[in-house]
Amino acid sequence: MIRLHHCPQTRSMRTLWLLNELGVGFDVVVHPFDKSLRSADYLALSPAGRVPALEIDGRTLFETGAITEYLCERFPEAGLGRAPGHGERADWLVWVHFAETLSQHAAALTQQHVMLYEDSMRSPIITRLEAARLGKCFAAIEARLDGRGWLLDGGFSAADVSVGQAVYMALHFVDPAPYPALAAWYGRLSARPAFAASLPQPGEARLYAQPFYPPLADRP
Ligand SMILES: N[C@@H](CCC(=O)N[C@@H](CS)C(=O)NCC(=O)O)C(=O)O
């Protein structure tokens, strides 16, 4: 039994998308993105009360990077991992985990624009700074994609899923227009059926009420 604990449009979408790419059977428990993630029952699954948590093989995993590595080793026939000894192993690990460099900024911006609902709680300078830092991450991806269709020369992998999902969150805050290779790569990713199946389903609560949140202007 594989069971994913998920909140739509959060990092748990990364694991949902990967499970869909792997084509394995699994259940999804959709949680509200609220204080219920701090309940004793949920903390028993994920000790800091975060999503994703993945029940698999009689244990529960948390941390997207670890979950991605575990799933790709568990289901090697899908070809989405690069096993130890593979020539692309190091690059695969780097890009799988680079997703979190993006996600920390997307999470900070989500806090500013979505979770802190009173204007007085928000910081215009943090919204500008974090968006600029995401832009630097987009530039790194753009450089990597120069002459490549996917992040690894060997073709589509879980590295594309990991970074692609982080870019999905980041695109709520950064315009991709200055990054044409990233935009084209993201277009290919978002055309995949497994990506579409990881988006919020009809009736599910969404984290983002708007498609795009520009940096906040300074208050007078
Ligand atoms: N490094 C962790 C981060 C997990 C994380 O912080 N997830 C966010 C959603 S994107 C969360 O659960 N936030 C709930 C909270 O902070 O209360 C991972 O990659 O799984």
From TrEMBL:
In its keyword annotation, does this UniProt entry include ATP-binding?
no
Query: Which InterPro entries does this one have?
Result: Glutathione-S-Trfase_C-like, Glutathione-S-Trfase_C_sf, Glutathione_S-Trfase, Glutathione_S-Trfase_N, Thioredoxin-like_sf
Mind listing the UniProt keywords for this protein, alphabetically? Transferase
Q: Does the keyword Coiled coil apply?
A: no
Family annotation (Pfam families): GST_C_2 (PF13410), GST_N_2 (PF13409)
Q: What is its EC number?
A: 2.5.1.18
Using the record's annotation, list all stretches that form the GST N-terminal domain.
1-79
**Which class of enzymes does this protein belong to?**
transferase
* Domain (GST C-terminal): residue spans on this chain: 85-215
Q: Which GO terms describe its molecular function?
A: glutathione transferase activity
PANTHER family reported in the protein's UniProt record: GLUTATHIONE S-TRANSFERASE GSTA (PTHR44051:SF8), GLUTATHIONE S-TRANSFERASE-RELATED (PTHR44051)
Q: What is this protein called?
A: Glutathione S-transferase GST-4.5
Species source reads: Pseudoruegeria aquimaris
Q: Please spell out the taxonomic lineage of the organism that makes this protein.
A: Bacteria, Pseudomonadati, Pseudomonadota, Alphaproteobacteria, Rhodobacterales
